[in-house]
Amino acid sequence: MKLGAKIFLSFLLIVCLCLYYPLRRLAGAIITHYGEGVEDALADQANILAGIVEREIKNNSFSPEQWHEIFDGAHNRALAARIYELKKERVDSHIYVTDKQGIVRFDSEYPENEGKDFSQWRDVNRTLQGVYGARTTRRDESDETSSVLYVAAPIMAGGEIAGVLTVVKPSTNIRYFVEGARWNILKSGIFSLIVAGVLSLLVAIWITRPIKRLTRYAKGISDNERPEFPRLDNSEIGAMGRAFAEMQEALEGRRYVEQYVEHLTHELKSPLSAIRGAAELLNEAVSSPKGMDIERQARFISNINGQSKRIQDIVDRMLELASLESRSYRRSSEDVDIGGIIREVCLDKEPLLIARGLTLDVRSPERETVKADGFLLRQALANLVQNAIDFSPDGGTISITADIPPDSSQATFTIADQGPGIPDYAENRVFDKFFSLQRPHTGQKSTGLGLNFVAQVALLHGGKASLANGPHGGAVAILDIRAD
Length: 484
What we know:
- This protein has 10 helices and 14 strands.
- It has about 475 residues and is an alpha+beta fold.
């Protein structure tokens, strides 16, 4: 599924979930709220009629027959009341009156109830007790639309409750309004979902448009084209696009360095081959009885031959290093003796150490091996040690520590010197390609590729490289690699 479709469906799902609960609750509460409104009006009506009955009882003029005539006339009256969408054609309310024992003395709708005991009904029973009385009862238990609302008011005489007047209202019209309101809520919900769907679609298009532009830009670069950088916003997508552009520039610079190293190594191969050939001829010459001691000459020539082969191997490997930055994985992995590789590096640097009066403090595990590219790891450590030598004061100490914690997948190499440390302005640039600082004892700069090489070796081994000022002065370089 495409990202735009995921965003669209996610927004739509969120809106549906957010609308469902409040709309469902509102639809369920409508009948209660309509009932409350009707009950409020019936309570007023019951108390007004109870007041009229109280006056007639006080004047001994209460006449059920007269009340029947009044209600019969009201029920037979032709109505044409338009209440919003409801057309009301007849009066559907009626009342009944009981005495203080709950015996019906008057019923405007069902005269046959007169004389019956209604004291068990909640509206009558509670009103006779001096509290508010009301109830809802279904005329047909199986039909929820047959509910009838009963609201009672006390009839007072001499400060005491002399009876109860109950106003009765069927819920038919209430349900008509409720169903109409529910339908309106449903229509509003559907309309809201449609609007939310359209807005979600627009948001999905708005979010994915710069991504599509960036995809076309990246594809153009991969096809060796030079596409124009797309117009992006200032969001994370825009930042990602600018990072892509910077990466493109870095890759183009990387290709230049690769070509430069390739040319350089090809140029060096020829003289190195000649040196090895000359060494072989010299080896034949010293085999004669004349000249220097044959054993010494043979040992000397053998050493020259071995060193030339080693240089040849380094040159061959330099061709591989030319593509180091373009690699996303290491091509070889072998068991590398940590102590042995550190000793090799220290042995190679021994002439420089002696010349400067520098001391090495080496702490490494004995016979501890890790899976790594031995050549790349050795070159990275050599670069770090050379960097420490360049910045150390004469007679100083360089400490080299290798650590492989138990049950850990990391190997950590720490090289610390006693030099001047890193200036503030250079702390974030020491691993940049071609960035270099002046060496204190020569005033010269290096090529600025050594530390960048170290960082690339660390990345190829799933780790990282760092260089910072030490707590007691000098610089501390840390090379972490994944020991797998």
